[in-house]
């Protein structure tokens, strides 16, 4: 039965013929030959705009069934003669067209050429037939439709912009892939199984593209939809096709094996190569790290390892810390820029003050320490002119002194700064140029008026800045007590006193210390004389008394520095003579300091005893001014011991002051009197707080040190000069003397007794004590008593009468035993010290560098005192004298 066409189909064909852009007249045989009338379906491609519109809108397309029906009918006609653009395509058989094969015909067969005229598939309908066995493969192949290289991040956007020819080709490729999904396809260009079909399909696509008018065709993307998961690699990490192909490049030339082969042959960079390329092991100080190219990494020949790969990996904490340090220094860059010498003085002052203000914050100081900020800040401050001593840069000098004091809070930071070539010398140079009249912070502490400050070289602008700096040091610095007088000298001496001993050079630094100490001690002799007249020992600080007030804290710092330098000095006495020539009145001022410090620690407002016991009140034990006074006294006694050791000139200078012997004897008596009450008698439960009890123990230890130092100084004087034996015999002292104003030069108490008897009483108390430390003190006093009674019959009679014992022979025997025990202890101690020194000197281990520095200092002190065994010789001479005296005594 011959199939006819409905009116609907006829209208569709007529409408398509009327819309044909070719404008060619219909052949005269069109009404008679139906197949020729149906040839006009070949121009159905002109309905592409409607199809494109459907792509932009939705997936509903206009009449795809009629189009497929018409194409199928015309393709089955035996007398089909195509004209126009499709003539070339009709001449060559399409490998996808199975109409010529009778065995391939089926009512369900769909002509693949229909996909060439439709840019989208018809709407899918639910299929009632069971799924085919190749569904899994099809679902896997369907994943290639979402490749980023073809569809991008938004597939719809690419479909909208792509021309219909590209979409049609892509659809044909997918249909071709689905038709051959059941077998592994070799898609290389050299493969004989794939070259001919691909070539035919490519040729058909070229014919269709050439026959389609409209916009110029874009270059087709290399189709990767035929990619399967079989082959050499099943990895999804394959190289994606290049989307930027040239117009004349055939997409089929880019094969799958080429992309997969490239991806498989290129090795990934190792972790070591990445570290080298990104400069992980390079220094953080170099921001421009050299990067190695990937070609060099891939072509590197195995063998010699690159430098640095054997280093341990840096922890994330270290990397984070370095990052924070670099960011911290970047944030502080504006301060460093403000200190540039080309800037105005006001800008440099403001930047310097901002630096010390930030350093007062503990958190900022911690970050500055981690970032090595202090060393950079010191260098920049120095380059800005700070520390040069110019009056125009007075604020910068004071800021630099405060900066060094803030850095001295941490010994590690101070040690690092002291390693700089000019750090220590610059601080000493600044200290050498300062006194009460030139110290700007000292003048600000005195509350001087503007005219007085102007005469001192401080303008109103500088006064405001100095006032701000003064408040900062007192309230934010946390270095000193609120009652302390702030000065540049104090800031510098505080820093220098905390320096390592190895940083001090006695030949260069000791003269500066002596000059600064002598300048600070200059008002004390007059103040001690005024104190005996009823005036204040140290007046209140104001604009009228600023030249008479002393800073005990600064004095203590200078004394500690002088002690370190004296311990490290040579054995000859040339330096002592130079010191005396440099500051002739230094011996007298040191004795006045001892008297003033002892008086400040025992005046009525500080020492008040309870009415029902001998315990001093808590304010005496924990008051910081009392502690500072004791520290000054001990430091002064140490310096005097070093200066008078086997030095006749210093001994004569000290003994020429009438305060020397009464003061030393009073120190011995009062120290022994107050110490047993703190050591032997303990407070009952609840009488005193725990912190006060600890303060009592510290106070007792300080009194023991004071007693030993006073005995050592007296021993040095007696050992060198014979005249002192006669001077002591004329001094009277009350063992219970409180050390009031009247008793400064001479004890005026009612119950006075010879000073020799007071010494014998102290010796008796030491013999009665069971404390191990007291046994050392009684041995030392036995040597001192033996020296005092040598060739002095009067002293011998007074001392033997006051010594404990039933007879003089028994008393002398006790002196001999104690002196012998002390001498043996002394010899053993010096031998152990010498052995320790030798071991430390022979040891070349760098880990003991710090101990080595201490050993050198100890060798300097003990070496000068004990190197020639003079002390042992003196002690043995005393023992020999006492033994002979014991044998010659019969009562």
Automatic annotation (TrEMBL):
Compositional bias of kind Polar residues: 48-57, 67-81, 105-117, 201-213, 241-262
Pfam families: WAPL
Region annotation Disordered: where it falls in the sequence: 1-170, 190-225, 241-265
Domain named Wings apart-like protein C-terminal: residues: 314-722
InterPro entries: ARM-like (IPR011989), WAPL (IPR039874), WAPL_C (IPR022771)
Basic and acidic residues bias (residue ranges): 89-100
Compositional bias annotation for Low complexity: 118-130
Composition skew (Basic residues), residue ranges: 1-13
Family classification: Belongs to the WAPL family.
Protein name stated in the entry: Wings apart-like protein C-terminal domain-containing protein
Organism: Phanerochaete carnosa (strain HHB-10118-sp) (White-rot fungus)
């Amino acid at each position: 039965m011959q199939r006819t066409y409905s009116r609907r189909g006829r209208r569709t064909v007529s409408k398509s013929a009327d819309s044909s852009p070719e404008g060619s007249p219909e052949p005269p045989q069109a009404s008679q030959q139906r197949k020729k009338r149906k040839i006009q379906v070949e121009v159905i491609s002109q309905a592409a705009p409607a199809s494109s519109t459907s792509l932009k809108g939705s997936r509903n397309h206009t009449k795809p069934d009629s189009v497929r029906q018409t194409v199928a009918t015309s393709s089955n006609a035996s007398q089909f003669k195509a004209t126009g653009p499709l003539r070339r395509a009709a001449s060559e058989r399409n490998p996808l067209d199975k109409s010529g094969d009778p065995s391939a015909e089926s009512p369900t067969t769909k002509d693949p050429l229909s996909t060439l005229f439709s840019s989208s598939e018809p709407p899918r309908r639910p299929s009632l037939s069971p799924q085919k066995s190749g569904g899994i493969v099809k679902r896997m192949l369907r994943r290639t439709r979402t490749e980023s290289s073809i569809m991008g991040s938004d597939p719809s956007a690419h479909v909208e912009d792509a021309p219909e020819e590209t979409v049609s080709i892509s659809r044909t490729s997918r249909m071709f892939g689905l038709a051959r999904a059941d077998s592994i396809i070799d898609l290389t260009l050299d493969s004989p199984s794939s070259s001919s079909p691909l070539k035919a399909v490519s040729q058909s696509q070229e014919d269709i593209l050439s026959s389609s008018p409209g916009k110029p065709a874009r270059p087709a993307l290399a189709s990767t939809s035929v990619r399967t998961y079989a082959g050499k690699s099943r990895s999804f990490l394959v190289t994606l096709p290049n989307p930027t192909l040239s117009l004349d490049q055939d997409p089929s030339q880019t094969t799958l094996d080429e992309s997969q082969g490239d991806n498989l042959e290129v090795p990934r960079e190792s972790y070591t190569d990445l570290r080298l390329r990104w400069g992980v092991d390079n220094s953080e100080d170099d921001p421009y790290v050299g990067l190695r190219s990937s070609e060099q990494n891939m072509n590197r020949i195995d063998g010699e390892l690159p430098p640095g790969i054997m280093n341990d990996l840096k922890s994330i904490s270290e990397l984070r810390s370095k990052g924070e340090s670099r960011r911290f220094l970047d944030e502080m860059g504006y301060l460093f820029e403000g200190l540039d010498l080309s800037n105005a003085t006001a800008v440099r002052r403001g930047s310097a003050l901002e630096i010390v203000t930030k350093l007062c914050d503990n958190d900022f100081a911690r970050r500055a320490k981690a970032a090595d900020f202090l060393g950079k800040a010191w260098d920049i401050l120095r380059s800005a002119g700070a520390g040069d001593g110019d009056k125009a840069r007075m604020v910068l000098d004071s800021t630099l002194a405060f900066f060094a004091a803030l850095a001295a809070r941490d010994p590690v930071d101070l040690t690092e700064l002291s390693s700089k070539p000019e750090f220590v010398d610059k601080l000493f140079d600044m200290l050498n140029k300062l006194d009460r009249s030139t110290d700007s912070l000292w003048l600000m502490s005195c509350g001087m008026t503007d005219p007085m400050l102007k005469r001192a070289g401080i303008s109103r602008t500088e006064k405001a800045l100095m006032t701000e700096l003064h408040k900062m040091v007192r309230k934010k610095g946390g270095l000193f007590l609120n009652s302390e007088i702030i000065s540049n000298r104090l800031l510098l001496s505080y820093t220098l006193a905390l320096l390592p001993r190895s940083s001090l050079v006695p030949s260069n630094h000791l003269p500066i210390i002596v000059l600064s100490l002598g300048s600070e001690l200059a008002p004390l002799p007059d103040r001690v004389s005024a104190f005996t007249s009823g005036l204040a020992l140290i007046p209140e600080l104001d604009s009228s008394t600023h030249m008479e007030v002393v800073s005990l804290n600064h004095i203590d710092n200078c004394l500690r520095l002088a002690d370190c330098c004296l311990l490290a000095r040579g054995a000859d006495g040339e330096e002592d003579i130079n010191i005396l020539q440099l500051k002739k009145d230094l011996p007298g001022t040191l004795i006045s300091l001892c008297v003033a410090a002892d008086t400040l620690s025992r005046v009525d407002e500080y020492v008040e005893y309870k009415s029902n016991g001998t315990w001093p009140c808590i304010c005496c034990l924990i008051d910081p001014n009392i502690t500072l006074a004791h520290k000054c006294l001990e430091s002064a006694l140490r310096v005097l011991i070093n200066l008078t050791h086997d030095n006749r000139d210093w001994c004569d200078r000290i003994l020429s002051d009438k305060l020397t012997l009464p003061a030393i004897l009073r120190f011995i008596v009062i120290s022994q009197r107050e110490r047993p009450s703190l050591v032997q008698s303990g407070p009952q439960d609840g009488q005193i707080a725990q912190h006060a009890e600890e303060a009592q123990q510290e106070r007792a230890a300080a009194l023991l040190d004071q007693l030993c130092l006073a005995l050592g100084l007296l021993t040095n004087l007696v050992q060198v000069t014979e005249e002192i034996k006669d001077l002591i015999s004329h001094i009277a002292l009350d063992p219970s003397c409180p050390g009031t104003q009247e008793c400064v030069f001479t004890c005026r108490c009612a119950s006075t007794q010879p000073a020799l008897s007071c010494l014998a009483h102290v010796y008796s108390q030491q013999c009665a004590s069971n404390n191990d430390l007291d046994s050392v003190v009684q041995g030392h006093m036995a040597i001192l008593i033996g020296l005092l009674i040598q060739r002095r019959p009067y002293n011998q009679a007074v001392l033997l009468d006051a010594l404990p014992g039933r007879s003089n022979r028994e008393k002398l025997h006790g002196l001999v035993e104690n002196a012998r025990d002390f001498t043996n202890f002394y010899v053993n101690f010096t031998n152990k010290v010498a052995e320790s020194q030798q071991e430390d000197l022979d040891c070349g281990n760098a880990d003991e560098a710090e101990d080595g520095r201490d050993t050198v200092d100890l060798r300097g002190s003990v070496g000068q005192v004990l190197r020639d065994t003079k002390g042992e010789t003196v002690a043995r001479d005393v023992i020999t004298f006492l033994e002979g005296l014991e044998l010659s005594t019969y009562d």
